[in-house]
Amino acid sequence: MADRLSQVAGHLNYPRGLLAGQVAIITGSGQGIGAEAARLFANEGAKVVISDVDAGKAQEVAKSINSAGGSAIAIPGDLLNDSYIEELVKKAAEFGNGKLHIIVNNAGFTWDGVLHKTTNKQWDTILALHCGAPFKLIRAAAPYFRVKDGEPRNIINISSTSGLHGNAGQANYAVAKAGITGLTKTIAKEWGPAFGVRANTIAFGYILTRLTQAKEEGAFVTTPDGTKVALGIPGAQQAARGKGAQGEQHVDIPLRRPGTATEAASSILAVASPLFGYVTGQTISVTGGRNI
């Protein structure tokens, strides 16, 4: 035990950072929580692979990290394309001189609809992106995780309170985000005993991103077939949820405010770090206390 504590303390005092020498793929890291996580990881010594469907934004994040003295590469593409997933793993391993240490499955968006009006396309797309793509990426990266080289390996899957508690108008998203927690636990049980791989889920609550901004602001994503999907929450719905009888803001959140993208990303860094070295198979709620 003393030796293990000394090892962790050594990590904390290591001048190059908590993730020094590790190679991390972070999906959806062209903006929002993913981009903040990429910057935090790079600050802690990781070589970061920026994966995003928006090539321009991915390149911008990689450039900003490299300009600040970090190490990053942009490998943009569509996670719903199986060939891209193979390319992502191949190029990431090349960037890491034959090694991968961390995968953060963060990419995704919402395509809401009440149950009886949700289309097959809405259902299939959201499940494919939030469950299918993470599974395929992890499977493709298996040769770099099922190894015994004494180095840490981490998989962090991003979920949501919608996956823990359900949410009206989000049957597809709720099912997908619930499913990813089962995948996480399975990875922990399959790859933990022989290879020491840690796998955890982070379930976010109300975080300030384009998915929680007012829908009237006009943010959208375009699916592979050209369909534009509006993002955000209708302003009237936000107002109704945000105030209590006395006009108190965010009454369903004990901290009385949404989280920031940086706060959300900081929790990802914490889980990836040696500070969480004995934590695996868990779903960690980062919600400001919402739903307790």
Automatic annotation (TrEMBL):
Molecular function GO labels: 3-oxoacyl-[acyl-carrier-protein] reductase (NADPH) activity
Enzyme class, first EC level, given as a word: oxidoreductase
Pfam families on file: adh_short
Keywords associated with the record: NADP
Catalytic function, reaction form: a (3R)-hydroxyacyl-[ACP] + NADP(+) = a 3-oxoacyl-[ACP] + NADPH + H(+)
GO biological process terms held by the UniProt record: monocarboxylic acid metabolic process
Protein name: 3-oxoacyl-[acyl-carrier-protein] reductase
Documented EC number(s): 1.1.1.100
UniProt family annotation: Belongs to the short-chain dehydrogenases/reductases (SDR) family.
